[in-house]
Amino acid sequence: MNLRKCIKKTYEQIRKNFARFSYNFVYVRREGFSLVELLVTVSIFVIVTSIVLINFPSFSSKIALDNLAHEVALSVRQAQVFGVSSKESAIGSGIFPSHGAHFDINQNAKFSLFIDIDENNKYTGESELSETFNIQRRNYISEICGFLTSASSCTPLDVVDIVFTRPNPEPTLLGKVGVSENLYSYATITISSPSGATRSVVVWSNGQIAIQ
User: Fold this and answer.
1) Which helix (H) or strand (E) holds 201?
2) What is the sign of the dihedral through the CA atoms of 119, 121, 127 and 129?
3) Reduced to 3 states, what is the DSSP secondary structure of residue 100?
4) Which domains does the chain have, with CATH numbers?
C-alpha cells in the first residue's frame, strides 16, 4: 500500500514538473520574433542602408569641394604670409621678393604659388614657380571674377594674380582678359564639382580672404 502511494506521489510530481517546463518553454518562445516581424526588421534595415549608400557619393563630393575651397583659401593666405614676412627666394640669397597665387581659367585643374622675381605683379613662367596644387576628384576652377569696386558687376577673367609685397598685407589683384590687364578691388575664384555644386573663394584688396 505504501509502495502504491509512493509511486502515485512520484508520478504526480513528475507530471507537475513536466507541466511547468512546458509552460516556461511556450512562454519563452512567445517572447521571440515571429517570421513577419523578422522580415519587417530586415526590410527596414535594407531600405535605410540603401538610402545611405545612394547619398554617400553626393555627400563625399560636397566634402571634397569644401576641402578644396579651404585649400585654395589657405594657399592664398600662405602667399600672404610669405610676402609679408619676406621669405627668401632661396636660402642665403638675400633676396626677399613678393609672393603670389596664380589662377588660370584655361588650366582649371591646378593653381600655383609663385615668387615675383621680376616684380611685375604677375606670374611670368616656370622660373618664378614655387609650388603647384593639382585639383583632384574632377573638381575644377569654373570661373574667375574681377570687381573694380564693391558695387560693380563681375568681369570674367582669364587669369588673376594675387601678389603680396612687404610690408603690406593688402594684395595687388591683377586680372587679365585676353591681352588686356587691369587692377581690381577684389576677386572671386569659383570652384565646381562634376555634380554642379560650387564654392567661391573671395580675396579682397584689404587682405581679407573668405569662402562663400
Assistant:
1) strand 198-204
2) positive
3) strand
4) 52-211 (3.55.40.10)
Q: What is the pLDDT of residues 119-162, one digit of tens each?
A: 999 999 999 999 999 999 899 999 999 999 878 899 999 999 99
Q: Which residues neighbour 94 within 8 Å (Cβ) at sequence distance 6 or greater?
A: 88
Q: What's the CA dihedral at 125, 126, 130, 136 to 10 degrees? A: 100
Q: Measured between alpha carbons, how far is 186 from 160 in angstroms, rounded to an integer? A: 10
pTM: 0.74
Cell numbers placing 66? 569644401
143's CB contacts (< 8 A; 6+ apart) are 105, 156, 188, 189, 190
CA 23 to chain centre: 60
CA 23, CA 36: separation in Å to the nearest integer? 24
At position 133, the amino acid (one-letter code) is F
- The answer to whether 184 and 148 are in contact (CB under 8 A) is yes
